[in-house]
Specification:
With 324 residues, the protein is of the alpha+beta class. The chain contains ten helices and twelve strands. It has two domains: 30 residues, no CATH class; 287 residues, no CATH class. Helix content is 23%, strand content 26%. A hairpin with a 6-residue loop joins strand 8 and strand 9. Helix 4 packs across helix 10 and helix 8 crosses helix 10. It starts with a helix and ends with a helix.
Amino acid sequence: MLTVGEYLPTTPIAGYSWDENPWQEWLSGQVLSSPAGLWLADGTDQFPSDVRRTLKPTDGSNDGVPKSPGVFAELVGLSPRLVLKDNLVVDGFWRGQDAIDISVQSVIVGKSEAMNVALTVALAEPYDRYLPDGGNHGLLNKESLSARLIRSWTTCPHDSSLQLDRHDPYSASTALRRPGPVQEFAERFGLTFDDPFHRAWSIPGTNVLTAEAWGSRRGTGKYETEHQGSRLFCRTDFLKEVLVAEKSQLVLLVKAQKYLEKKEMDGSGTFRTETLTALLCPQQGFRVIRRIPGAARAAVAALLKHDRSFFESRLVAIGKALTP
């Protein structure tokens, strides 16, 4: 920086031909990554002890990926018997032991349509199961049935490029991508964040959302790897109040996935994927989707193979099949 300051008054600034402002392009990489002007290390949490849990062989398949609903329940803060505790993980992505990736999604859906949305998720191939939200572009078409029925209420910032903090081994890019509520939801329920990294969101006197973000980097250059994760906890009493106010239910998807190297005959890699799809009703509690109505299964099976891969196509077909 001292050298730059010495040469700047007397020496022309040179840059690549595509740089509109080479000085600003260079300088932007020499400042802190956080808009709040803090080091990302200040916003990087310690690795949670529970994500290091090794799944027992009886908990999953031969590859260690869990299959039991009780194991999935514990991953998101429920008891093994699917009973709600004080907090529920409603958004997140992290890598557990044995290289198993865990992801959590949730959306809010009117109580009359929540089951159809859950069935739409469950009738996709395990690897392709997801809940549409603003981040994966599933709800951009406001005229679609998905956009009319599904309310995305959590989000993650997408800009996680490291600047000066890229040299700091104690920082993680997840500190820039900590999950939290979408702006509309926060405004509707009067949520405010308590620190510059949005670790906690509160209503007057009560913390109702807590976001964790952790990570570490090893190696340099193209050999650098980052082990990271994030998750968003919501107080279940607050969540129930929200669902009552919205006359809705929460649709929750938990996915456990492991990459298996060169297991196919052609030498290509594949994935072992297991999921849990569930509904949270403020009156009836937590319910896992275990059985799928024959009419819904038949409606999806009747779709062309290309159409079956689209959430919207399955949702429309299931809605028609289950409408009296």
